[in-house]
Amino acid sequence: MLVLQNTGAVLLMRYTRSMPGETEYMTQTAVIMQEVIKGLTCILLLLKGEGTLSSAWAKPGEALKTSVPALLYLVQNNLQYVAVGYLDAATYTVSYQSKIIWSGMLSVLLLGRRLGPHKWLGITLLAGGVAAVQIAGSKQAAQSGDEDAAGKAVGLVAIILAAMVSALAGVYFEKILKGDKTSIWVRNVQLCLFSIPLQFLAIYQRDWEKVQANGWLFGFCWSTWAVVCMFAFGGLLVAVVIRFADNNLKNLAMALAIILSCLVSVPLFDFKPNGAFAGG
Fold first, then answer.
1. What is the pLDDT, as a whole number, of residue 247?
2. What is the pLDDT of residues 41-99, one digit of tens each?
């Protein structure tokens, strides 16, 4: 399910940021709406399971721990929207998998894991593959004009930063999920309690004039709502996978989505991979 969700989310997000008439919405409001939908879903599941929401703040110290991944996930979500505006879906998806590199290193540092030689070899090959894809994308952008090349560079920096932040958030979230028996739905409610106010602050600083002038949901259409729902659903899937498996398996599932994303990008966005991209 995570493979399908991640593939659909990337393709839909690319569609909304590249197709005429679909790009008017503000990414900041899209991020906060996906957090609201995810939070409401978790509240309903929590009420169904426990009949009360009291467990969400029964342990203030544990609840406070979720403020760290909440902030990191918000930064990641915003960086993803920036990156997908400049990169094709295939380059975006492959480059984002560099988070597996950071996840491997951070799991050693934060979780005390030991990675065998075959895993370090896999991480090294992944680093080489991501580098090859980025070089291929940069060359294509340079051939198409300086303006496009500059945008491609912005997109690549944004997606690498998003990958680093995502890895840190994932490893830290795994640490607190497995270090305490608090339910997944409680943890996600706590995440939303921190992330929604933080995102409101970001909107106030950057897009408040646009919100006042055009309205909160300006530019939202069916495809925008589809992206919002896909990412909200994906946040819940990630939590389930991390809780019952681990962060590395989550990254593997999302890496498999590369194949689907690249294949679908060829007919959908007229994507034409060159030799370096295919090799990477």
1. 67
2. 988 988 888 777 777 777 787 778 888 888 887 788 788 878 877 887 777 877 887 88
DSSP-assigned letter for residue 57: G
- Nearest-angstrom CA–CA distance, 156 and 139: 13
Q: What is the mean pLDDT of the chain?
A: 80
Of the pLDDT bands very low, low, confident and very high (cuts 50, 70, 90), residue 246 is confident
- The two tokens of residue 185 are 């739905």
Side-chain half-sphere CA neighbours of 144 within 13 A: 12
* 3-class secondary structure, 60: helix
Beta strands in the chain (DSSP E): none
Measured in whole angstroms, the distance separating CA 31 from the mean position of its chain's CA atoms is 11
SS3 content of the chain, % helix, strand, coil (to 5): 85, 0, 15
DSSP 256-280: HHHHHHHHHHHHHH-----HHHHH-
Distance from C-alpha of 237 to C-alpha of 188, rounded to nearest angstrom: 11
Distances (CA, A) of 39 to 56, 116, 157, 186, 192: 12, 38, 30, 10, 6
Q: How far apart are CA 74 and CA 272, in angstroms?
A: 32
Spatial distance between the Cα atoms of 38 and 71, rounded to a whole number of angstroms: 16
